[in-house]
Amino acid sequence: MTLDEEKELVHKAKTNPEAFSLLYEEYYSLLLNYAVRRTGNVEIAKDIVSETFYKAIKKLWLFQWRNIPISAWLYRIANNELKQYYRKSRYRAESFELMLARTDREPMLDYNLEEEVVQAQEELEKHEQFLFFRQKIAELPIKYQEVLSLRYFEEKSLKEICEILGKAEGTVKSLLHRGVEKLKNMRNSS
Fold first, then answer.
1. Of the candidates 95, 106, 120, 105, which has an alpha carbon nearest to the alpha carbon of residue 42?
2. N or C: which end of the chain has fewer CB within 10 A?
């Protein structure tokens, strides 16, 4: 969706709930993935995203278009919900292994064993890297967790991160740099 199309859709959504449902469909999975990565728990992530969209539809009339995708505003709401969750629960992220163990998987009927082994090895390497970095990021203060997750897991631009967090570009760059340095130091000391 182009910015112009999104701008028109946001304008319509302010008076038409059906138009808002299109925004919901467009951004639900992105926000859910972000919340799952931050919490490590699918059910908690779903609650956070539900609350995000509830607050978004209640306050959509306040949204002002600034030639930035509405996703930045939605991520900001989600980020505030995550902060609230962390404050209330003194959060402890669930391990990714436990989350995967709860998912139901059906066996594949037709497959090439060699190809499956290679793919499984690649997935395991990605999974191990993801777990390592997720664990290390979770050990950092929240201010670094936010910027690193948005930049490297959600692949947001600096401009979008600034909008989501309500911080100046220099501050975001500094937080990213310091966060990456802290991760490097953690990795070197492991």
1. 95
2. C
